[in-house]
Structures are given as C-alpha cells and as structure tokens.
Amino acid sequence: MIVLECRTIDIAPTISRLLKVPMVPPSGRSIPEVENYAKERSCEKAVIIVVDSLGYSLYRHLSPTMRNLHELAEKGLLFKCRSPATITSPAIASIFTGYLPEEHNIYSTADIYSERSKDPENPRLKSIMEWAYRAGMKTSAVIELEGAESFRGRIKDFYGVPNSEDILDYDRRITEYALQSLREKPDILAVHLRALDRYSHRVETWDEMKKAAKTIDKNLEEIFRNAEKDTIFFICGDHAVHGGKKWLKNATHEEIKNHEENYVALIVGCY
Description:
Elements: E1 3-7, H1 11-19, H2 32-41, E2 45-51, H3 56-62, H4 67-75, E3 77-82, H5 88-97, H6 101-104, H7 109-118, H8 128-134, E4 139-144, H9 145-149, E5 157-161, H10 167-182, E6 188-193, H11 195-202, H12 206-226, E7 231-236, H13 244-247, H14 253-260, E8 263-269
Parallel strand pairs: 1-3, 2-6, 2-7, 4-5, 4-6
Antiparallel strand pairs: 3-8, 7-8
C-alpha cells in the first residue's frame, strides 16, 4: 500500500473542492490524490469522522484489530497526516476549518464561544459544515454536547452527547445519532469518536486498547453501511496518542519519530 502525506488542515479545503462548497480559502490546500480518487467515483457527499488519538503509528499497530477501517484503507487512500496540535480542541478546530491553531485561536471548547463573540464573521472560525450550510447544503455534526451547542444558529442539524465516564456508551450514543443524521441524507456529516483516547489514558495493556479499537471499528462499520453510496469518508486522528512513554516502550525508531512529529492516520475512501 502506498502511504501518502498531507496535513489535517488540508481536509476542509479538499471537501470544499470536491463538493463545490464556497469558502474563504484557508491555510490548508486541497489534496490532489483525494480529488482524483473522488472524481473517478462521482462522490457527492462527505463524512468526516475524527477518531480521537488515532496517531499514524497507533493505527498501523491496531489496523489488524480495526478490520473495517483497514478494508477502507485498502480500497482507498492512506495518509500519514501531520496535525498542528497535540490536544483535542485545537486539533479538531483545524480539521474542521482548515486553519492552524494560531489562526483560529481555539484551544478549548470555551474559546469557540469567546472568539465568536469577538468576531462572529471571522472566516477562520467557520467550519466546512457552516460554509456548506451557508451555501444551501444539508450539514450535520455529532459531537460532545458543549461543542455541539456552538453550532446553534450556524447549521440546522447538530447532535450533542453529554460527557460520560462510560466512554464506550458515549461513543455508542454518538454513533446512534450519526445513523439518525444519515437518514436525513446530509451533504456533509462530522462525527467525533473518543474511546481510544480515553482508554489510552486509563488502561495499561494493549489488549485493553484493542477492546476500544474493536468497539470503534464496529461503530465505523455501522456508519459506513448506512451512508449513501456516493459518500466519501475521511477517517482521521486529531493528534498522536497521549501517554507516549507507556505505549512506545517497544516502539521502533520510526514509530517514535511519527509520534514526536504528531503524525495521525487519515483514511479516505468510499465504502
């Protein structure tokens, strides 16, 4: 399998090009390999699924466990994708907007509200879902409750799940809302799954990490199967896995380098 390279800030402008969504050009640039892939398959809808902590080396380690995601990579494109942030809020903001953290200034969920109150029309704060909604397209977001509420008045359909100690149940609820959203046939759907990240902080063994990976993979399979056939999926990590000392004990030099340079996995494909 050929592994390509890109940046997470390239995802939003790529979707903009594919779906002809008018947006102020961000710092990221469209990925030509994805453009060619999507054009050959006449993709007209997009689903972005952020799998929290899915670093590139972690994905390669867990890919035998994540059968459905691995099959999508085999049929589609696999990227070693540089993320500009090592924590979730700025990393996801960069994925959704196409800007670097120092440009969108979102370092926590609270920052979304404060930055927008300063300048609600700042294009650096607008997600690809918002640009699409402004253009008359149908968009949806399924994320944690506080973040979801930031979309109120900016897109029509959004679903928020309260934070929970039971992260597998949390991801299950996110998935159920994603399936509900897909029944409305959105042009762009954004989803955030968190079990891998939570497990990386709390568990000690690879067997426990594989449990989280298998659960995420099952959720991904349901989303894949319920999307329309002309849908292109962007499955992306937001940052390399936390707890590096614990998970990199027996890592290779290349795996350590990928972690230190904050490379995440980006899998693009049609199911």
